[in-house]
């Protein structure tokens, strides 16, 4: 309140519009969910496009809040990035994925390679490498069954990133550049990155058939990826035509609703058994 003299006080109500309110509400709830371990990972099968085998899964965060209901990653991940909650959240994801890998193994499933999304902010955290090594040791997961998906924004801070990426490679985990084509990848840096896979963003896959220029771009990305020594994975495959196009043009791997939605752990178990029996 501002003293305007005399007994007249003018109150300023904080400018909490709906958007700001929702953010505060979500941040509080996300902290609580993290503390209470109310978050979940679902897993989307990634297939070898040549033979249809499951080559692994991508872990995707799911949050069903007891009060707020289902909140999609596109809403809470940016918030987590903004507030720094992505750091503890990201740590939890790595640990949970490793735990699940071992649980599947014990149930006779796999070894299932798990790709986790890691934010650039997280990778730049000082103890990231050490944390990762510790989790791998504690859970007993072989590093070759863990894959890390990072976006092109890793190239913003290329000198620092290079060191970290090399350390990751030395540990033996695989690296993919996620959402490739969407950002501003500097192609001249790309060839120096110690990565294994390029992941074509689903926005390109979406229009492959309807828009021939998109098809040409996708062909070019695949060819470029191969010439740099990377294998290529496509996301967002929803239709048979898209799958066929990608397979015909040498894209090694793919994922999308055409094959399977992201599934809870039991769903992956069922998917895996079904694939073994066809
Ligand atoms: P992303 O890494 O590009 O993940 C792919 C998204 O596409 C996922 O959305 C997935 O459910 C969705 N998807 C899969 N198949 C199809 C399809 O055939 N068609 C379409 N239209 N979409 C498909 P989701 O699960 O909502 O996640 C959104 C984004 O949130 C992810 O995009 C990723 O950037 C982020 N995210 C999710 N989990 C994590 C996490 O554990 N850590 C971090 N840092 N980010 C995460
Ligand atoms: Ca991803
Ligand atoms: Ca994407
Ligand atoms: Ca992404």
Automatic annotation (TrEMBL):
Start and end residues of each EAL domain: 23-276
Protein name, as recorded: EAL domain-containing protein
Protein species of origin: Heyndrickxia acidicola
First-to-last residue of the parent protein present: 468 to 745 of 745
């Amino acid at each position: 309140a501002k003293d305007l003299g005399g007994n007249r006080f003018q109150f300023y109500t904080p400018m909490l519009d709906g958007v700001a309110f929702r953010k505060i509400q979500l941040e509080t709830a996300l902290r609580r969910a993290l503390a209470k371990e109310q978050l979940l990972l679902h897993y989307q099968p990634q297939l070898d496009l040549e033979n249809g085998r499951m080559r692994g899964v991508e872990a995707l965060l799911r949050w069903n809040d007891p009060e707020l209901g289902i909140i999609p990653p596109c809403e809470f991940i940016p918030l987590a990035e903004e507030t720094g909650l992505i750091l503890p959240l990201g740590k939890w994801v790595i640990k949970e994925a490793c735990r699940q890998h071992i649980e599947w193994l014990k149930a006779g499933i796999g070894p299932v390679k798990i790709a986790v999304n890691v934010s650039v902010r997280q990778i730049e955290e000082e103890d990231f490498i050490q944390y990762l090594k510790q989790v791998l040791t504690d859970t007993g997961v072989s590093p070759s069954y863990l894959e890390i998906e990072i976006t092109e924004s890793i190239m913003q801070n290329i000198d620092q990133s290079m060191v970290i990426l090399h350390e990751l490679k030395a540990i033996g985990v695989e690296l993919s550049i996620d959402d490739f084509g969407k950002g501003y990848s500097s192609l001249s840096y790309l060839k120096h990155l110690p990565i294994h896979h390029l992941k074509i963003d689903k926005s390109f896959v979406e229009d492959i058939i309807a828009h021939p220029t998109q098809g040409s771009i996708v062909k070019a990305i695949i060819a470029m990826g191969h010439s740099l020594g990377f294998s290529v994975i496509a996301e967002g495959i929803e239709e048979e035509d898209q799958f066929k196009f990608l397979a015909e043009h040498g894209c090694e791997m793919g994922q999308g609703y055409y094959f399977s939605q992201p599934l809870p752990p039991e769903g992956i178990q069922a998917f895996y058994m079904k694939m073994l029996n066809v």
